[in-house]
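ok so dumb question maybe but i'm new to this and my supervisor (M.) told me to 'just get the structure for Macro domain-containing protein' and walked off. so i did the thing. is this what she meant?? sequence i used:
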Amino acid sequence: MIESFNEEKGLLGIFVIDNATIKVVQIDITTLSVDVIVNAANERLQHLGGVAGAINDKGGASIQRECNEYVYENGSVLEGDCMMSNSGNLPCMKIVHAVGPRWKFGKSKEDKKLAEVILRILEMVMSQGFKSVAIPAISTGIFGYPLHAATDIIVQSIANHFKKVKRSSITTIYLIDINDKSLHSFIRSLQSSVDFKQAEFDDQPRYGTQPRFQSQISETEYEGKPYHNILINFT
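this is what came out, is it supposed to look like this??
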């Protein structure tokens, strides 16, 4: 199990909430030796390209086979929901395949669905007694969700989990990506939230030493209201 990224160049920031640690890490999710990794999946759980394709390729055929069986027996996974599968050849123990919302300019309750899927992920991880989970910037890729709005909702949903569950088994959450913009946005969202405290660590890289990022989201930036029903804190 990975206990610390202090000696890894990929660690960009550490934050704490209650008894849990949130680590922002630039790393390939398929290499993480955590309990659970989250795959941003489509409704049919067909892992054909991008990170999902890499997870499928490196993890082996058993992952897609289990997902196919699940969809055959239960139907497509709805936006805002997820399922857990084996991890195949990957170093993690399980994979949660999470279906985030496709961006429809705020007209289809995308904010609510994104918050729901994050809470559902954490509930599923906790229900199995796992302690660590790696979460990417769900819905921000080909699903088109505006990045800053998405990371705000993801971070706020994590905070809401720990407010709701006083004795969560989850002690470490990795917010990960290989994309600088996504990681920058995760840190901005964490620094903007009153629920998280930023921690210092040795050899802290540039992201963690910068001043608090100023929110640059404006209602005129998007053709919709992606997060008006979510309690988001801005600096």
